[in-house]
Design goal:
The complex is a heterodimer.
Chain A (H helix, E strand, L loop, with lengths): L2 E5 L3 H13 L3 E4 L6 H8 L3 E4 L8 H11 L4 E5 L4 H9 L4 E4 L4 H15 L8 E4 L2 E4 L4 E4 L2 E4 L2 H12 L7 H10 L6 H17 L7 E3 L3 E3 L1
Parallel strand pairs in A: 1-2, 1-3, 3-4, 4-5
Antiparallel strand pairs in A: 6-7, 7-8, 8-9, 10-11
Chain B lengths: L2 H7 L1 H20 L4 H39 L6 H4 L6 H55 L3 H25 L10 E4 H11 L1 H6 L3 E4 L5 E4 L1 H17 L7 E8 L3 E8 L19 H7 L6 H12 L2 E7 L3 E9 L6
Parallel strand pairs in B: 2-4
Antiparallel strand pairs in B: 1-3, 4-5, 5-7, 6-7
């Protein structure tokens, strides 16, 4: 598990971002006392820093420069300052990325993941998801059970993996569409219905019946 | 200056000259001077006066011409009194001093206006940065507390954010040239960002989106391109078709340029209004019907495109489609 350090002076953002990142499986720490921030950073020794620019006392640029003198920890600037000069400044000081506020959450998460993947190679996401006796292979895009395997399209794979990540919960259609959009599959409601039908057909091929329950007006559940 | 108007100015002198001639003729006649001599003296006198008038005229004329030339080459023409040579004649000097006073007072006014404008712009910038903080936390609240209500709030917050962006970019318009960083931009990332921003709104409106997934690279400023594409996509959503609304985002690679094409199947634009949609403040029939148009979005797009060396073109058939085409350089501009 990677530890992310938040250097952000707005209390609300700090708290909500902490919840968000914890929900996504990161360990999160944050700075609340803005004296000698760089010393605190070096003591905490996080795997990644989300650094704001407008901070009390020292601004983010200075902190970045000080930290860079002693550590190569990946830094992403997260700021509402968005002129080219700001961005250039940030990157020149050795930051790994620059994200503008207000960020789109999937994009912020993708940037964090991108930097982490780049810096800490080798650690890959889980390749298999399972539920009961069913295994979803994310790399090969297949689902198998009862000794049989069937191939899935990109959309079908993502839909199933979302359901597998939320077992025994009702997942709404809007939630699934949302998730697909976050993964750059821009489908509409009708396409989702078509995909669900196909998934059920494919599951039937590997002798899985009635895995996905439809809750009228609420969504789906496995 | 025409010679006729010059002579008109000098009418007093001319009259005086005619009078002197007349008196001389009468006097000489009374003195029984030989008429030939009278005629000859008058001719000589006229010649002398005429030539000196001509010399004076051409000198004056040249001076005015020179001044006009200086003026033509001067960028800030109101600074002429600073550059022109100081006249020697008393009357001209008086006018010169008046001109200086006028210039000084105007410069003060211009400075004052510039300062006010600069301060206002700075205020807008800092206001935008401030407002972005609560917008960010609202988005985070919504993400952490998912519900139908949160979706609706998020949709509205995104709309607020779009208007806020417009204000910022409008305020920055005259400094676009100082605020861009041309570099490699992966068009897919730009498209992804714009669709992510409008996700809730588009899903709510049941929009179907088709996107070319290519690894095409263009050379431009990412931030401004995102702004432009966002405005275009927003329009496609605003003016969507009632049934099966759809947006296609395509990329066409040319030799020198890349085309980023956004085509929808929406209500389209009247042919008579096509030429004017990039004009400032133009809202058109569509905008007026929806009462949600400021007439600023596309104007900003056009202006930014000009500054960044891109092109924006529109093609549309009413009730069928609108196609917006962005032409973006593919190569690094020459240093």
């Amino acid at each position: 598990m990677h530890t992310i350090l938040l250097v952000e002076d707005d209390l609300e953002i700090r708290e909500e971002l902490q919840i968000l990142l914890q929900n996504r499986g990161y360990a999160v720490k944050s700075i609340s006392d803005f004296q000698e921030v760089e010393k605190q950073i070096l003591t905490i020794a996080p795997d990644l820093i989300l650094l704001d620019i407008n901070l009390p006392n020292k601004n983010g640029y200075e902190i970045c420069r000080k930290v860079r003198m002693q550590s190569k920890v990946p830094i992403i600037f997260v700021t509402s300052r968005n002129s080219s000069l700001d961005e250039l400044n940030g990157l020149m000081l050795g930051a790994d990325d620059y994200v503008e506020k207000p960020y789109d959450i999937p994009i912020l998460l993708a940037r964090i993941q991108g930097v982490l993947n780049r810096v800490y190679q080798g650690k890959k996401d889980e390749v298999n998801l399972s539920y009961q006796n069913i295994t979803l292979n994310l790399l090969e895009s297949t689902v198998s059970a009862n000794g049989k395997t069937v191939e899935l399209t990109k959309n079908e794979l993502k839909i199933l993996s979302y359901l597998f990540q939320h077992p025994k919960q009702i997942v709404s259609r809007a939630e699934i569409i949302d998730y697909l959009w976050d993964n750059q599959m821009y489908i509409d409601d009708n396409t989702l219905s078509v995909n669900m039908t196909r998934i059920r057909e494919k599951l039937a091929q590997i002798e899985i019946e009635n895995l996905i329950e439809t809750r009228r007006g609420q969504g789906y559940k496995i | 200056m025409k010679i006729s108007s010059y002579l008109k100015d000098k009418i007093n002198y001319l009259l005086a000259f005619v009078m002197i001639c007349l008196i001389w003729v009468l006097y000489a006649n009374a003195m029984q001077v030989d008429p030939n001599v009278i005629f000859f003296t008058v001719l000589l006198f006229s010649l002398f006066v005429g030539i000196s008038f001509l010399i004076h005229f051409s000198k004056k004329n040249q001076k005015i011409k020179r001044l006009n030339q200086v003026l033509d080459h001067l960028q800030e023409k109101y600074l002429i009194s600073e550059v022109m040579e100081k006249p020697k004649r008393a009357e001209a000097l008086a006018y010169y001093k008046i001109l200086k006073r006028i210039t000084k007072s105007m410069l003060e006014q211009v400075n004052k206006t510039q300062t006010t404008q600069k301060e206002y712009k700075e205020y807008i910038e800092s206001w935008v940065h401030e407002i972005k903080i609560p917008i960010t936390s609202i988005k985070l609240y919504c993400e952490n507390n998912k519900s139908e209500m949160a979706n609706k709030i998020e949709e509205d917050v995104e709309e607020i954010n779009n208007y806020v962006e417009q204000v910022l970019f409008y305020a920055r318009l005259d400094q676009v040239s100082n605020d861009f960083m041309i570099r490699e931009v992966l068009l897919e990332d730009v498209i992804r960002t714009v669709l992510a921003r409008n996700k809730k709104w588009m899903i709510q409106n049941k929009m179907k989106v088709e996107v070319d997934h290519t690894k095409t690279i263009a050379y431009t400023d990412e931030k401004w391109l995102i702004f432009i594409l966002n405005q275009i996509v927003i329009n496609s959503i605003k003016y969507k078709a009632e049934e099966n609304p759809e947006i296609q985002i395509r990329i066409e690679e040319g030799k020198e340029n890349v085309k980023l094409i956004v085509q929808d199947n929406g209500i389209g634009i009247k042919k008579s209004e096509l030429d004017r949609i990039f004009d400032k403040g133009f809202t058109g029939t569509n905008g007026r019907n929806q009462k949600k148009s400021t007439g600023i979005g596309l104007y900003l797009c056009k202006r930014i495109c000009e500054e960044l060396g891109m092109r924006i073109e529109v093609d549309s058939v009413q009730n069928q489609y609108t196609k917006m085409e962005l032409t973006i350089p593919r190569r690094k501009p020459m240093e």
